[in-house]
Amino acid sequence: MGLINQIAKGDMGALEDLYKEHKTYVFHIALTILRDTYLAEDAAQETFIRIQNNAGKYRFGISEKAWITAIARNIAIDMHRKRKYEVVREEQEMEEQPVFPEDKLEFLSIIQVLDETDREIVCMRIITGLKHREIAQILKLNTNAVKKRYERALGKLANGMKEVG
């Protein structure tokens, strides 16, 4: 029995297990879209709240990871849209950044040269390990288009790294 099915039945231990298993890549998906650590943390928390509230709506046959990724992506996009229309706030004091490996921070800064869709495809493939087919479902694109965009994005990143190095 999958964790989401257990969550739908009210098993809070299953929610905790799901959180431990998926929190890192949910955060990275949100960070890729929002480009703000604090908002990405909020989006990740909201993702798990939404998973708990909507576990009964999960359609079996779709991978849990793809379903979770779609929820995280939609929340981050909604937050991004909302932020676009907010009044510019005063600069906030810098607080301690969440800890994750230096190479992932570097990776996230390197992929900023890609357009938003290509950045999402690369992150979903590399960070979350989703298959091209699953990414295509989430982004509502053709699987071959996702594969081609992924290949081109990697080529662009490789060329950019040759120029720097």
Contiguous helical run count: 8
According to DSSP, the number of beta strands is 0
Q: Averaged pLDDT, please?
A: 82
General shape: globular
How would you characterize this protein structure?
- The model is unreliable at 87-101 (pLDDT under 50).
- The chain is mainly alpha-helical and 165 residues long.
- α2 (12-34) packs antiparallel against α6.
- The protein has eight helices and no strands.
- 72% of the residues lie in helices and 0% in strands.
Question: Could you write a compact summary of the structure shown?
Answer:
The protein is mainly α. It is 72% helix and 0% strand.
List the helices and strands and how they pair.
Blueprint: H1 3-8, H2 12-34, H3 37-54, H4 64-84, H5 102-110, H6 116-126, H7 132-139, H8 143-164
Keywords:
165 residues; 72% helix; globular; mainly alpha
